[in-house]
Every structure is written in C-alpha cells, then in structure tokens.
Amino acid sequence: MSRDGRARTYILGAGLAGRSIAAEMRRKRSPAAVAAFLDDDPAKIGSKIDGVPVLGPIADVVSLLNKVPQDEALIAIPEASRERLRQWYDLLKHAGFGRIRILPSLAQIIDGEAHLIQAREIDPLDLLGRTPIRIDLRESLTYLRGKRVLITGAGGSIGSELARQLLAGGAERLYLLGHGENSIYEIDRELRTLQDEGVGERATVVPVIGELQDPHYTRFILQRMRINAVFHTAAYKHVPMLESNPVEAVKNNVFVTKHLVDAAKDAHCERFVLVSTDKVVEPTSIYGATKQLAEEIVLNADGNRMRFLVVRFGNVLGSRGSIVPLFQKQISRGGPVTVTDPGTTRYFMTIPEAVSLVLKAGGVGQAGELYILDMGEPLAIRELAEQMIRFYGYEPGSEIPITYIGMRPGEKLAETLWGPRERPQPSGTERILRVERSNWSPEQLESVLRELRAICFPNPERFKQYRNRRELRRVLARHISSLPVSCDEPQY
Questions:
Q1: Which of 25, 213, 230, 237 is most deeply packed, by most CB within 10 A?
Q2: How many domains would you assign to the chain?
Q3: Using the 8-state DSSP alphabet, how is residue 126 labeled?
Q4: What sign results for the dihedral spanned by CA atoms 315, 318, 321, 322?
C-alpha cells in the first residue's frame, strides 16, 4: 500500500502512453497511486517523471518490488510484441501480481493518446498470434471525415470494434444498426463512455434497432439517414447452426446483402464495404455458400461513382461464438477442452488488427475489387488450446484434458484465403492483398437469386418450394460445386 493507504499501480512503460495514464490517475484522484514506472530504456532508468521513479530493467526489478495483494501492474506499451508481452506476463505472475491490466494495441491508441478507461484485464488473446502492425488511424480514416457512417451488425465482435476505431475518424455520425437491442445498447453505452473520457472525436452516435430482411425498411433507413458509407458486418456465422437452418442463413446473409446494396445505390452512398470470410473459398458449408453469394452481389454492384468492395479474412481471436470463449468456459469448469481433430488449423488475427485493416482497405480500395488480409501462418487448434490452458496456470493433458470430438457438419480441417481461380496481388498496402478474379455474370447471379427467393419468401405460384431445405441446397449446389448435397437433408 502507498503511504496514504491507497493501492499501488506499477506502470510498465515510461513512454507517452504510460505518462498519459499516470497523469490521468493524478488528475482524477484515482483510488490507486502510481508507485513506479518500470522500463528497459537505460536513458529513463533512475530518473523521475513528476516525482514517480523509473525502475529497470523490467526483468531485474519486478521480483524485487515490495508488493501487497492489492497492488496491480498496468502494461502501457502498446507497440510491444507478442513475445515481449508473454515474457512480461510470466514475470508479473511469478512476482505475485494478482491483477495485471493492459492498454489496447496501437490500432486503438490514437497518436499515443492513451486513456485509463481503455485499460482492461489481460487475457490469452493478448499473448496469442503475431504482433499487429501499426496503422495510423487518423490518416487512414480521413476519407470518412465529416461523413455519415452506417455499421450493420454493430453489436457484434467486428461491428463493435469498427465503432470503437471509427471514433478516431472525425465522422459526423455513427449509426449503430442491429436487430438485437441488448448488444446495440451495450456498444452505444460504451462509445458514449469512451467519448466522455476523452477518447476519439465527438461524432454523434445513433443506435438503431431494425430488421434488414425488410427491403422497404432498408431503403427507407439509408435514404432517411443520408448515409455516405456502409460497413456491412451483419451475418449469421455459426457453421453447424446454419447447417440446420439453411433457409434463414440465405435470408439473412444473402438477401440482406442484396437489400443493402440496392438501398445504397438508391441513396447514392459513396462506399460500401462487405466484411467476408475465408469460408467462401470452395465452401462445404451453407455459411460459406451464403457469404460467397454475398461477395458476388457486392462485386457485381454497378453504382455510378460509388465504391462497392469486399474485404475477406479468416478467424479473429475472441469473436462471439468462436472457440476462444468456448475454451475459456471449458477451462474454468476444469475441462475437458474439446477440439474437433488433431490436424485442424485456422488462420487467426486479433479483432483490432483485422478491423484497422478493413478500415484502411475501405479508403484505398477500388470499386468492384476483392481484398484479402494477410493472416500470416495458420495455427493448429490443438496448440491454441494448449497455450490457453497454460495461460490459466494449468498443464495440458495432466490437469486439463483435451479431447477430440470429430468434425462437425460443414467444417473443414483447414481453410484457405483464396481459391484456385483467384490470384492475390500486392495492393500497395502492408498486409492487404488485391485479388484478380472473374466475377459471376449478372445473369448467373440473378438466376440463383430468383431461385432462392422462391424458397425464402412466400410465392403463391411456387408455394411448394417455400422453406424447402432440400431444394435450397440443390439450388446452391448447382452454382457452387463444392457444396455437398446430402440424401438425408430434410425437406423442411
């Protein structure tokens, strides 16, 4: 404890971010006092910043600190590599720090302006994967300054992170659209709190609850809001779930995209960015097939002086419904941690890095183009499970077992980011590839949409096809040859 009885905070990093946090804690009379900065820079070690000593090197001094259980460590080095974070985390845990917080990555820190409200408990996602690149958000978001921006699926993992980062862009308005009131309420409240604490610029944040499966509503809302840019993230995404609900998958993932594209053209939006997935490549799942059709809808859109483009990437660490939250729950229950197959691999990227690259692509991307994020090397799911078990202080196998449950419907052992008829090329922007490909013809696209429309929406002239799952899968398989047709598919 400090002399005045307050808990103490040790800040790793005496740079701009760390100094900003310390100054804010003093200014707001934080219940915790800054005991010291810990740093590896010889030029800073031994000095004082506003009366607070700078100690180091970090590896040498952490174990020597006179701590009590209430003390915490706060890592305020946003540019730190994953390797350094893992080293510091191990040092701090072994030194007895019960609470370790971290500032977000550089993708979420604007010009070094860190704020205490952005600090959060460190978790396994901060230590997994590669080190994200630094993207100057103020520069990359200049194309949205003074604009009205709509985010669909704004309560989801990607949509909510888009909203957080767009606070830095100087947009006039941010419309947060979703059909789940609780998730939209949460991100709306979070953004307002961030703004109150000085994060980002003063965009007007507008929460919107609505159903994009209604084309009349979609057209009305885009014209009424006078939207300049659309980031379309809303989709059903759970692969096995959509295998059991294929009609709803098509209604939500295909026709919502069609409604939005048509409405964006009518409203003369300047940009439309579809967030897509590596599961569109040679898809074996209904989810992958629906997202492939969504890609084709956007890439076929012909808007006068409008930019319709697609950004495709693989899994993101920690998204809702992903394996990371599942593994966390399984570990908290004592296991077992379930993995589909020992050979299963996936591409992974952190949500903040993926979103910052999506925003960058939205500015540099050209109309009618497909862009792919460079995800690095795929990671074995088994290794991911082992790393997470160790993060929580257990030994894989002996203390927390890993069991293999077999592949689920629609899943693959491995995913690829582009198909055999797609040729990735450098885009001129780091970690963003431009794909040369042949889009579907407008006639082919219209043909499949016409067939699917009769299945997804009531038509008195074709009532026997309405909600017919078997027919829906046959239609999709005629146009997407990789999609399997099962003789066990129920009719309804």
A1: 230
A2: 3
A3: G
A4: positive
**Tens digits of residue pLDDT in 410-449:** 999 999 999 999 999 999 999 999 999 999 999 999 999 9
In 3D space, the residue among 160, 125, 140 whose CA is nearest the CA of residue 431 turns out to be 140
Residue 181 CB neighbour total at 10 angstroms:
11
Is the separation of the CB atoms in 406 and 366 below 8 Å?
no
Banded pLDDT at 227 (limits 50, 70, 90): very high
Mean pLDDT of the chain: 92
Whether 301 and 210 share a structural domain: yes
279 a catalytic residue: yes
CATH number at residue 67: 3.40.50.720
Closest CA to 210 of 186, 177, 184: 177
Q: Among 122, 150, 175, identify where a domain stops.
A: 122
pLDDT of residue 419: 95
Name the catalytic one among 147, 279, 291, 412: 279
Q: Say what the pLDDT of residue 112 is.
A: 53
Q: How far apart are CA 205 and CA 172, in angstroms?
A: 9
Q: Which domain holds residue 264?
A: 137-436
What pLDDT is stored for residue 111 in this prediction? 52
CA pair distance 135, 107, nearest whole angstrom: 6
Q: Are residues 423 and 463 in the same domain?
A: no
The pairs formed by 222-227 with CB atoms below 8 angstroms and a separation of 24 or more are: 222/150, 222/260, 222/263, 222/264, 222/266, 222/267, 222/269, 223/263, 223/266, 223/267, 225/148, 225/150, 225/173, 225/175, 226/148, 226/267, 227/148, 227/149, 227/150, 227/175, 227/264, 227/267, 227/269
Structure-block tokens of residue 162: 């888009």
The burial class, CB within 10 Å (0-12 / 13-18 / 19+), for 9 is: buried
Report d(CA 73, CA 76) in Å as an integer: 9
Q: What is the pLDDT of residues 83-122, one digit of tens each?
A: 999 999 999 999 999 899 998 765 555 555 678 888 999 9
The domain boundary, picked from 60, 87, 122, lies at 122
Does 487 fall in a domain? no
180 plus 302 within the same structural domain? yes
- Cβ atoms 291, 249 nearer than 8 A: no
How many CA atoms lie less than 13 Å away from 224 in the CB half-sphere?
8
Show the beta-strand stretches assigned E in 83-193: 99-102, 120-121, 148-152, 173-178
**Domain match, 92 and 235 both:** no
Q: Are residues 334 and 426 in the same domain?
A: yes
In 3D space, the residue among 2, 31, 36 whose CA is nearest the CA of residue 19 turns out to be 36
